[in-house]
């Protein structure tokens, strides 16, 4: 009898483990965003805190509490702060002509032989007539990029994305929106689906003919089944136009979803032809402890 009970328990555990492994990454994300109730043991008051019944006991006070930071520690902190913020102020100091200078956009990069992309300044010698859109010297106070791409991890997860980026000369402000549809192939021919969106207000912190840097803040949503979770999003984006017909971009985002940490990184390398661009890249999305990643390919249109 005991042997039968042991076999039954073992079989139940194996089935549960099999179901857990078959649930896939999208369902794991759902479990991360909506964990079940958990029992937490009560925490006894700390003997070295002021939250106890009778306050802190001097016998348990840390002798190092009154210690002060030395010059070496302060110096290391300053160096760490400078290094960690270098991606934000470094490109601006190296490439930007100043916040007082206005930036103008051609219909697409490499439209004129003497500049990779943006025109900086008053543009007194540049055609600004709206009816002369195809003039190689034509520029305007706005830029629009539309893109679609597909990605796959070559195991079970595939992604289809759509992107819109409106950049302007109005105080260097812009708008970036992304929509990503994830589809996961599960055992027994089943599929799982989820939708990720983010909408951001951007500010062009660095502008030059060949280098653009953007900071942004916005909101992010994740929809799985009939549940939609939302959170905040922050981004840092870089665009580089090194030589004729080539475009490199990188994006880093950090934010939250249902109080869970979300990190997103993306790199792309593109080849341009007039208003079009074909690009290859790699995309990594991490929601708490679950990664959705893989190479990608897409096409982008510039206006």
Structure, explained:
With 303 residues, this protein is α+β, with helices and mostly antiparallel strands. The protein has a domain at 142-302: OPCA outer membrane adhesin/invasin (Lipocalin). The protein is built from 3 helices and 12 strands. The strands form 2 sheets. Strands 3-4-5-6-7-8-9-10-11-12 form a 10-stranded antiparallel barrel. A two-stranded antiparallel ribbon has the order 1-2. A hairpin with a 2-residue loop joins β7 (211-224) and β8 (227-240). It is globular. Residues 1-21 and 46-65 have low confidence and may be disordered.
CATH architecture descriptor of the domain at 142-302? Beta Barrel
What's the number of extended β-strand segments? 12
Backbone CA Rg: 26 Å
Percent of residues in β-strands: 35-45%
The N- and C-terminal alpha carbons lie at a distance of 76 Å
The largest sheet is: 10 strands, antiparallel, barrel
Shape: globular
Strand order, sheet with most strands: 3-4-5-6-7-8-9-10-11-12
CATH class descriptor of the domain at 142-302:
Mainly Beta
Q: Helices and strands, in N-to-C order?
A: HHHEEEEEEEEEEEE
Helical fraction: 10-25%
**Low-confidence runs:** 1-21, 46-65
- The CATH topology of the domain at 142-302 comes to Lipocalin
Q: Tell me the name of the CATH homologous superfamily of the domain at 142-302.
A: OPCA outer membrane adhesin/invasin
Secondary-structure class: alpha+beta
Mean pLDDT: 82
How many H/I helical runs?
Answer: 3
